[in-house]
Structures are given as C-alpha cells and as structure tokens.
Amino acid sequence: MNSMFHFSCPSRSPKSFYGDVSSGEKDLFLVDDDASAVSGRSAGTKKKRKVKHGKGPGEKKARGEVTQPDLPPEELKGICLSNKRLEKWCQMPFFATTVTGCFVRAVFDASISDPPQCVTEIVSVIEMKNDYKFGSKRTNLVLNLRHAGEEQIQNLRAVSNQEYTKSEFKQWKLAMIAAGTKVPTPEMIVSKEKSIKEALDPTFTQGELDFIVAQKKQFRAAPLNVA
C-alpha cells in the first residue's frame, strides 16, 4: 500500500497530443510502468520546495517584499473545475493543456475516515500504465496537485463536484502566504478562462478526431456484442 501524507487542512512513443516529452514539454508525462518511473515519487508522496534562508519568497514576504494580489473567492471559481467537467474532458486531446493551471477542490488523504478537502492547483497530468473507472468512463490519467508549497499525485476521482467553501478558500490563501507563494493574478485567471472557454466549444483536426476514437476504443469497459 502506498504511503500517504496527512495534509493539514482545517475544518509507447514519447510524442502524443499531451506533449512531447523529449522536447521538454511537461503537460503530460508518459510512462511505461508507473508514475514513479517519471516523477520519482509514488502516489501519495509529497515534495517540499527548499528555500535558502534570507533569499526565498518567504523571507521576502517577512520583509514586506512579497505582496498577494487581491483575489476574492468568486474570481478563482472561474478556473476551478469540477469532477464532472474532468470526466467529460478526460479523453479529449486538449485535456492536459487545458486543465494544467486550473484549480480543483480535492481530497488529499483518502486513507482517513474524514478526508479534508483543499483548494489545489493542477500542476501537471500524468499518464499511467493501468486505467481505472472514472464516472461513466475509464482513464489512465492522474493529476499532480499542489496546495501551497506541497504536491501530491491523485487520481481524478479525488476531485470534488462541489465548490470550495469560504473557509477552504481562506485556508488556501493563508497557506499560500505561509509558503511565500503568490496566488494567481487577474491576468493569469483571464488567460486560463479563455482556455476553458475554447475547450467548451472545441474544433478538432482530423488527427485529433482519430485520437478521440482511439481513446474510446482503448478504454471501452467491455467488448461490443457483435452477435
């Protein structure tokens, strides 16, 4: 069983539509065996950002050099995706590019009886060898999520369908300040909202249509009855 960390929240070719790993694009990592082959971490592990004393953003914040953009709870909701939205998009060629940089309300430790929900950013999308059921579909994609300065890999089922609460949003902002990490600027939110809008009314090339068909065949839950 993979080890999980308790997150503190109050109350195959290297080329695909997901990105070219060989050229350094990181929208999606392709792996042959499991996520640890690429990321060096198994699902549920955490990564902390190391900051040198006196030089990192946290120290600058203490000296008043780092300021947070004014971000009301309603503005972040424009780039916060639900479980149902991820289910609808998970077999689309634009999935990784569109969802990376968006936010979700997600569980960080499903091993405890009452797992906390946190506001988290989608850092990247990772392709696993084995697929799993996700709503009415199947997928082999998982998310690398970040809450302030820590990251964790979770499958798409960890994402909530409900909007984050005001207290969860407040906790996230406080965690971002403590980590010396800026929240998204209005310009960043507008740019991401544009990407989401384009994904809601997409146009596909023939190659992308072929990719969608191949995805549906690959993850078909049961063979068709041709009798």
What key phrases describe this protein's structure?
20% strand; transcription regulation; Plus3 domain-containing protein; Plus3-like_sf; Cathepsin B, Chain A; disordered N terminus; alpha+beta; 227 residues; 6-stranded mixed β-sheet; Plus-3_dom; DNA binding
Shape-level CATH architecture? Alpha-Beta Complex
Rg on CA atoms, Å? 18 Å
Largest sheet: 6 strands, mixed
Helix percentage:
25-40%
Separation, N- and C-terminal Cα atoms:
42 Å
What is the H/E string? EHEHHHHEEEEHHH
CATH class: Alpha Beta
State the secondary-structure class.
alpha+beta
Mean pLDDT: 76
User: What number of structural domains do the residues give?
Assistant: 1
Would you identify the regions where 5 or more consecutive residues have pLDDT less than 50?
A: 1-7, 10-57, 61-65
Broad shape: globular
Number of helices: 8
CATH level-3 fold name: Cathepsin B, Chain A
Number of strands: 6
CATH superfamily: Plus-3 domain
Indicate the proportion of strand residues.
Answer: 15-25%
